[in-house]
């Protein structure tokens, strides 16, 4: 095995999810292709092009819709690493991202928990050197 290439994130709407991940978080749209069943294959990746991409999958039924925003049971489930915490925290705050706490400086790095468009919890993290 070499790496995890994609992680599926169930969303309500493709276009609003694309806007949030590209505009607020600085990801880039890597793929957006229609599929025969009417769905789309939508992949966003960190702006650096390094790291695991997100497959944005629109919920298809009630069970999936019930998981939108709570895919990890209320725990932080996603970790967005940065090389400049202050820059990215300020940019994301200006873009309307909701941070659930003030930035903390821990032995492992600078970190703050934020919510994505649907309420999934993420860490913005600049690892310690």
- Distance N terminus to C terminus? 27 Å
Structural class label: alpha+beta
The arrangement of helices and strands along the chain is: EHEEEHEHEEEE
Please, what is the average pLDDT? Answer: 95
- Low-pLDDT parts are none
Strands, count: 9
SSE arrangement:
Layout: E1 6-11, H1 14-24, E2 28-34, E3 40-45, E4 53-58, H2 62-65, E5 76-81, H3 85-94, E6 98-99, E7 104-106, E8 109-115, E9 121-127
Parallel strand pairs: 1-4, 5-9
Antiparallel strand pairs: 2-3, 3-4, 6-8, 7-8, 8-9
Structure description:
This protein has 3 helices and 9 strands. By secondary structure, the protein is α+β, with helices and mostly antiparallel strands. The strands form 2 sheets. Strands 5, 6, 7, 8 and 9 form a 5-stranded mixed sheet that branches. A 4-stranded mixed sheet has the order 1-4-3-2, with helices on one face. The longest helix is centred in the N-terminal third of the chain and has 11 residues.
Summarize the model shown.
The chain has 129 residues and is of the alpha+beta class. The protein has 3 helices and 9 strands, in the order βαβββαβαββββ. It has helices at residues 14-24, 62-65, 85-94; strands at residues 6-11, 28-34, 40-45, 53-58, 76-81, 98-99, 104-106, 109-115, 121-127.
